[in-house]
User: Which sequence fits this backbone?
């Protein structure tokens, strides 16, 4: 059982991949399973928080007793987060949001024309975490960084660039789709490595650290 360290806190999370349409039946996505974000949503709930989970498409069961909002594209996830965020004290961005979307997506299914491959034009998606962190009445923001190399240097730079007080760094090849995770928490006091553990254990450890950073009410 988990200590009730988040009683009275309202926590908003994003999880899973996004799906950027190419046409009505095709799209660009990534290998995020949603496991870490869902584990954190459950850990926050178990710590006594009121939880809203905004999720891209995943194969996971919806956590019980959590407000659930399904999102597809990065733009729809961004809109859902911006609408929900004023009612929350903490924002945890776990989703693997696509950096780009298809600017010339087709309203009709693309037909194959032999010898004429279509060209997809990409355009940048909004950075959901950075937008929330920049709000005048921003909630306490937590970011994730999955890196394949130079983990801590990239993660520390990301924490400063996105202006989040707490950033969870993990090695990408371990994290995506796996059941366990090796993570380092980065805050103003420096680096806090956690022992390798499953995502449920990692989520509880993140919640414990986060709870200790929240302003006393
Ligand atoms: O820059 P990068 O995508 O590696 O940063 C990861 C962190 O930023 C994660 O917390 C992720 O959920 C968040 N993010 C976001 N919107 C984006 C890109 C990343 O919220 N468009």
Assistant:
């Amino acid at each position: 059982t988990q200590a009730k360290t988040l009683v009275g806190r309202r926590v908003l999370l994003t999880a899973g991949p996004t799906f950027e349409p190419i046409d009505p039946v095709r799209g660009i996505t990534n290998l995020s399973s949603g496991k870490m974000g869902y584990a954190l949503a459950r850990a926050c709930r178990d710590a006594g928080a009121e939880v809203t989970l905004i999720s891209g498409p995943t194969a996971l069961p919806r956590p019980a007793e959590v407000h659930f909002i399904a999102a597809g594209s990065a733009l729809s996830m961004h809109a859902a987060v911006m609408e929900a965020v004023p009612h929350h004290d903490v924002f945890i961005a776990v989703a693997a949001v696509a950096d780009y979307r298809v600017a010339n997506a087709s309203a009709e299914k693309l037909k194959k024309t032999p010898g004429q491959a279509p060209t997809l034009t990409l355009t940048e998606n909004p950075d959901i975490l950075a937008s929330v962190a920049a709000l005048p009445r921003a909630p306490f923001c937590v970011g994730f960084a999955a890196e394949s190399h130079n983990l801590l240097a990239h993660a520390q730079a990301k924490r400063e660039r996105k202006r989040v007080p707490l950033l969870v760094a993990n090695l990408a090849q371990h994290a995506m789709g796996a059941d366990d995770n090796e993570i380092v928490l980065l805050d103003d006091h420096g680096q806090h490595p956690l022992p390798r553990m499953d995502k449920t254990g990692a989520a509880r450890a993140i919640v414990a650290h986060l709870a200790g950073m929240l302003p006393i009410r």
Q: What stands out?
A: The chain has six helices and 14 strands. The pocket of cytidine-5'-monophosphate is lined by residues 14, 74, 93-95, 97, 125, 127-129, 143-145, 158 (CB under 6 Å). The longest helix spans residues 199-213.
